[in-house]
UniProtKB/TrEMBL annotation:
Stored SUPFAM superfamilies: RNI-like (SSF52047)
Domain F-box: 9-71
Name of the protein described by the UniProt record: F-box domain-containing protein
Record Gene3D superfamilies: Ribonuclease Inhibitor
InterPro entries for this protein: F-box_dom (IPR001810), LRR_dom_sf (IPR032675)
Listed Pfam families: F-box-like
Organism: Pleurotus ostreatus (Oyster mushroom)
Length: 417
């Protein structure tokens, strides 16, 4: 009996378990097949590509993973982009695509008549990212908008990211149409580079879109005009994150649920006055200090928060400069001031946990004795500043030192209780 006669064919179910591992496996960076944005597929494991060539059965298993997320660059025209390939050559691939990243530009001047039909095939789309929307000429943008809204009407979109959405112009009508098309299923919304406000002071009646599935919203750069022109009814929102680039007083939108669980505030300026014109009572607050060298919120910022006595979790994130040799830990006076603020509240604080993260972006991470010295020093400072609460066991305070390395963020030191 030959070897061929005694060989056993493994069941397809086994390959269905093995091949997805190749998709999720983290290989060394140099082993990946990196694709430039103008190509259809993204970075795919070479092993996964090799498996797709073994036989038809393996190809059927690998293909949905290879084309799970695609990146389409429309720097010249939509007609000559990867969408042309998907529409005419391989329309069957559209049903495998779960994520679409569409890069637009001022050179996107030609939108074909078949765009509605092509995008309409993305029936399983779950994630959509649009870049440089306002750079597209108005005529082309109108045609593209029809295609996108048609696509969203037939899909169950979960995540939407609008990057560099309106660098040169405000497009509230475009945004309203897109949000309305995915309002029933969208869970995550991110809008970056919102436009500056105009000089007109005429009151605007905001357009309303209801999004009951929405769980997280992130707004970046000049959010005030947007929040006044569009009202998002999101009764089940869990997290609202906002970043402001304005050096003038700014405010949170009035449509945020009053009892939202998590609020994340980020300011790129040293002194930016946040106004609270509507009641809001989050149980968790995260403050990101983006200006390098700033190690604590401005004086009285925490004390002026109208909901501070309602907080259960407080996180303060500090980022160091790439040129900094030592992590920028908060001063002892900052810890003392926070403890004094907690003691001065009219009723016992509900705060149960404080986490202060310090992200070190120095070229080389600290090691050995340096890390141990930091751990001992920070533990001593925390125990001294928050002694009244730590002794009673009513409050947990931690300081976490992070380093951004090749494999992402790594925890170097964790101090406190």
């Amino acid at each position: 009996m030959t070897i061929e006669q005694t060989s056993i064919r493994l069941p397809v179910e086994l390959f269905l378990q093995i091949i997805p591992y190749l998709y999720n496996h983290t290989s060394p960076r140099e082993e990946w097949d990196f694709s430039y944005p103008s190509e259809t597929r993204g970075r795919i494991s070479p092993s996964l590509l090799a498996c797709s060539l073994v036989c038809h059965t393996w190809n059927d298993i690998c293909r949905p993973l290879i084309f799970r997320s695609i990146h389409v660059d429309c720097n010249e025209s939509v007609a000559r982009s990867s969408l042309d390939f998907l529409h005419f050559t391989a329309p069957h691939l559209c049903k495998d695509i779960l994520g679409l990243h569409l890069d637009l530009s001022t050179e996107t001047t030609e939108v074909p008549q078949w765009i509605d039909v092509c995008l309409g095939r993305f029936t399983k789309l779950r994630e959509l990212e649009l870049r440089y929307w306002s750079d597209v000429e108005s005529i082309s943008r109108a045609s593209l908008l029809r295609g996108i809204t048609s696509m969203l009407a037939g899909a169950s979109l979960k995540r939407l990211a609008l990057v560099d959405w309106a660098r040169s112009a405000n497009n509230p009508k475009d945004l309203l149409l897109i949000l309305s098309a995915c309002s029933a299923t969208l869970e995550y919304l991110m809008i970056d580079s919102l436009p500056r406000g105009s000089s007109h002071t005429t009151p605007i009646v905001p357009s309303v879109v209801r999004m009951e599935a929405l769980r997280r919203i992130e707004l970046y750069k000049f959010p005030t005009p947007f929040t006044r022109s569009i009202t998002i009814e999101c009764p089940n929102l869990e997290t609202f994150a906002i970043s402001c680039n304005e050096q003038v007083p700014w405010e949170l939108p009035s449509w945020i649920p009053e009892r939202i669980p998590k609020l994340e505030l980020q300011s790129t300026y040293r002194y930016t006055l946040l106004q609270f014109r509507w009641p809001i009572y989050p149980s968790s607050l995260t403050i990101q200090l983006m200006p390098f060298g700033i190690t604590w919120p401005p004086d009285d910022f925490l004390a002026l928060l109208p909901f501070f006595d309602c907080l259960r979790h407080l996180t303060i994130k500090v980022f160091s400069s790439v040129r900094a040799l030592q992590p920028p830990f908060p001063e002892s006076t900052h810890y003392d001031a926070l403890c004094h603020l907690l003691q001065s509240l009219q009723r016992p604080t509900l705060l149960k946990r404080i986490i202060i993260t310090v992200e070190n972006r120095a070229p080389t991470p600290l090691e050995g004795d340096e890390l141990e010295g930091i751990r001992v020093r920070e533990n001593a400072r925390l125990e001294k500043a928050f002694a009244p609460f730590l002794k009673s066991g009513t409050l947990s305070v931690q300081v976490v030192l992070l380093h951004w390395g090749e494999s992402g963020r790594e925890v170097l030191v964790r101090c406190g209780t």
